[in-house]
Amino acid sequence: MSDKVFFLDTTLRDGEQTPGLTLTIDKKVSIARKLDEVGVDVIEGGSAIASAGEREALKRMAKEGLKAEVASFCRGLTGDIDAALSCDVDAICLVISTSKLHIEKKLRSTPEKVLADTVKCVEHAKKHGLIVDVLAEDGSRTEMSYLKKLFSESVKAGADRVCLCDTVGVFCPEKAFEAVQELRKSLKVRLGFHGHNDLACGVANTLAAYRAGARELHCTVNGLGERAGNAPLDEVAVGLKYFYNVDTLDTRKMSELSEFVSVLTGVPVAGNKPLVGRNAFAHESGIHVDGVLKAEGTYEPITPEMVGQKRRIQLGKHSGRKAIELKVKDLGVKATPQQLEEIFSKVKKIGDSGKEMTDADFQVIVFDVLQTPVEQHVKLKELVSLTGSNLTPTASVKLDINGIEKVSAAIGNGPVDAAINAIETALGGTNVKLSSYHVDAVTGGTDALVDVKIKLEKDGREVSAASAGTDIVIVSVEALLKGLNLLFGKEKK
Ligand SMILES: [Zn+2]
Fold first, then answer.
1. Which domains does the chain have, with CATH numbers?
2. Which of 308, 312, 359, 457 could form a cystine bridge with 255, CB 3.0-4.6 A?
3. Do residues 105 and 125 touch, judged by C-beta distance below 8 A?
4. In whole numbers, what is the pLDDT of the chain averaged over residues?
5. Could you tell me the pTM of the whole model?
6. 14 Cα–ligand 1 center, Å
7. Residues near ligand 1 ion, CB 5 Å cutoff
8. Residue 137 CA to ligand 1 centre (angstroms)
9. CA distance 231 to 217
10. Who's near 128: CB < 8 A, 6+ residues apart?
11. How far is the CA of 165 from the centre of ligand 1 (A)?
C-alpha cells in the first residue's frame, strides 16, 4: 500500500452542520472547486438524502470534472445510498454508529444488527459501483474488539477504506495514536481519521493518527463544524510539512481558501487563528518588530508566504522606534530624529487611548508633525446612492482624481456595495482592489454609530483605513477615500 497521505475535506458536509450555517448550491459548487485547486483528494460534498438542493449540489460537483473524488454522506440505510447513486457521485461515506451509547440510546438497536446492516449496505453500494468508505461514528468511545470486527466485516463485504471517527473529540494524542496503531495491525485497506475539536486536540490527534498509520485525514476549512468544529485543513497540512516533512496540499493557497470560505459562509476567522488569521504574521511590540526586521525567523516559525499570508507591522502602544521609522519611510516622506520622536509619542498616546491605529490614522499624525498638508489626490465631488423595495440599489459618483473629473454609476447588492462599485468603476484601470471591508455597530439601536474598517491593495502594497459615523454609505465611502489617498499619494512621490 502506498504511503501517500490523502485528505478528505468535509467543509461541505460536517462544516455545513455548523449551527446556523447553510450554503446555496452555487456556493457549495464554488467551494468544491477551490478545494480541488488546493489538492484535496476527496470532497464530501453533502448528504444526498437530506434535500433536493443537496442532491442538485452533489450532481453539479460530480459533473464539474474535478480531480478530487466527490462523496456523499450516507447513514447505514439503503435509501441513503440510492439517493447518493442518483447524484452520480464517486464515493460514499457510510457513517455507522459503533459505540454502545449510540447503538443503544440513539439507534435503539444491537451491535449484531448494526453489523449485519453495515454489511448489507456495503454490498448494496459496491453492487452499484460506488467507492465505499465506512466511518465508525463515535469510534473513539467504541470497544476495540467491536471496531475491528466491524471494519474487517466491511472490508470483506467490499469496503474500499475505513475511518475512525472521534465524533465528540474525546481523544488525546496518545489515545488517538494507540487506537490507530491497533486498528492498522489487521487492516489491509486505507484507514482514515476524523477528528473533532471539543477538547482542543483536533489537530494534535489528527497528526498523531497520521504517525500511527492513518492515511486519510478528515478536515474542514477554518475548522468549521458542529460545536467546536473539526480539525482545520490548513493546520493539518502545514503540521505534516513542518513536523514530519510530508508534502501534501498546496499550502500557499490556504489564506485565499480560508477567506473565500469565510466570505461565502459568513463565518469570520478569528484574528488569532493559527496560519491564516489576520494576526498570524502581524507584529506590534517593539522587541518583536526589531527582531523580525533583523531576521524574520526570530518571531516567525514559518514564512508567511508558505500559507499565502503577508507580514504586517501593526502600530500601537507597544511599538518601538524601528517600526515607526519603517512606516514613515513607507509613506515616502523623511522625518528628522526630533520629528520621529514626536510621531513616536503621538502613536503611544493613541495606543493608550485604546484605539486601533490604521495606516490612514498614522498618515494624519505624520503629516501633522511634518507640517505638510495631507494631499487629497482623490476627492469626492458628488455621491448619490439609492435603495428601496422593488429597486436595484444604484449609485452614481463624481470624483476628482488628481485634477481630472470622473463620473460613473453602478449597481450593487445594497447601497454601500453600489457606491463602492461606482467608485471602483470611476477609478477604472488603476488596479486598486478592496481586499477587506468590515463594519461594526459601535452603539445599539437603529441610530447606531457605525465603524467601517477597510483594506486596499495596489501592486502588492496594502493600506488600511477607517471611518466612523451614522450613515453607513457615507462612512464606507470616507474610509475608501482615505485608503485611496494613501495609495495614490505614495505613487506621486
Ligand atoms: Zn464529524
1. 6-265 (3.20.20.70), 282-369 (1.10.238), 378-492 (3.30.160.270)
2. 308
3. no
4. 93
5. 0.86
6. 5
7. 14
8. 8
9. 9
10. 81, 85
11. 7
